[in-house]
Write a structure and sequence with these properties.
Length: 280
Amino acid sequence: MSHNTSYAAAPTLTLTAGGTTYAYRELGPKGGVPVVFFVHLAATLDNWDPRIVDPIAAGRHAIAFDNKGVGASTGKVPGTIEEAADDAYTFIRALGFDTIDIFSFSLGGMIAQDLVIKHPELVRKLVLTGTGPRGGKDIDKVAKTTYYDILRATLTRSDPKEFLFFDRDSVGKKAGKAFVDRLKERTADRDKDISVPAFRTQLSAIKKYGRSRPSDLSTITQPTLIANGDNDRMVPSVLSDDLHSRIAGSELVIYPDSGHGGIFQYHEQFTPVAVRFLAP
């Protein structure tokens, strides 16, 4: 049986659960444990790099979704990361799954940590990229960095992600433009951008998370892959080391000369690592 393995061509579907209609896309072969993708700050369904999703979907059922109140999902953006994790749990269980793998990036990794701590039985394997732990050093400064880089991008008529995710040297600039171009490969049925109030609510939730008491990450016993660039200005790279030291048996991959979007800059090297790690 043939199945779609192109994220750019995956249809947008909806599911209503707990009073919220969630927008999502799925691709890859059905059956087995699905890989659910937890997206970053301000992101919609259109923000996943197809060079990451497509190779994983070549052999796995892959599902990406809009967080509550973002993109085509209805409702109000939750004010805390814990609430966002509860929403993700509601969505996943409504799809009928009792076991999943998680691939997360940035804010998505924060939500994923809260989810796996509260519902350890749900998660088989965990991928945490460009993220950090609750109470992690300088996570509460994400908003300041974000607004600064949005201003810099506006002045140069660039996409803010080129500043937020990539170094501003020649290699980083090239990688940033290539990444933004890949996000435009989907031309039909594109998602709605996040609203400004929703974006601010997410930033506020991240600040609260950064100023909260640390979680006990020793309770995470699932196989965990942690990855980042070595110069992450949004969620400091040292926090990936912190996660690695606190999650027993976790694997850590740090890419040189790259920032928050290190996995996108090094997608050719990273994707085989992720595919191998997520193998059934």
